[in-house]
């Protein structure tokens, strides 16, 4: 395979990696190649990094993802199960409770969602809510109060099939959240 190089799709700098783990990308790629990590699944690579190199879980996951992307085992944004996820966010001009109601109430959703239908799976009012969407995706919304009259709404869309679907989902959810903000504007 030749000498390992720094990943083309770095998720973090060599400097950050060295400061946190004591090694740069080139070193981590080489160590994982020596252990035939390309033949392992995501969880096994992360476990190897934790067990053999005593990395904490966050750094093991980050190095695993960088390795998988560099070795062509995973595309950017791709999850271990092969699907992709996308996100969009918007700050809306209402308190967190009112923003949650707009997200949770099917009658209110009709005013800003367009043709997408959401079926609630679970909720932790007023901070988060999960849905199954009529397009086959799963949607999670997280809300964070930004003072008394503003709320940041962050939407994560899962079960997308390709990078092209990621691009389309980001655009669609950006437009939906823009409509939500317009609807809530004083």
TrEMBL record:
Domain of life where this protein originates: Bacteria
Protein's recorded name: DUF4287 domain-containing protein
Organism: Glycomyces paridis
